[in-house]
Description:
Blueprint: H1 9-22, H2 24-34, H3 38-44, H4 48-59, H5 62-72, H6 76-86
Amino acid sequence: MIPRDTIEPESLALRALAATLADERRAERLLTLTGLTPDELRARAGEPSMLAACLAFLEAHEPDLLAVADAIGERPEALVAARETLER
């Protein structure tokens, strides 16, 4: 098992994005509110700015942040810290 403090922000954000997209309601909300298309999301999923934006989307609605953090076995604060790192 990888110690939590060594998990790369990109990896954490990708796991959060996958969990976001696994929930149909949350996935639709992400696409609607961000204006992204599924193709654009796929094409840019590895970009730090896109990953940060997806984490910011979760932060903007605490129930989603908590649900996704729980789904991937992380603390919500870890997702916030990952977004902050990706925005640098």
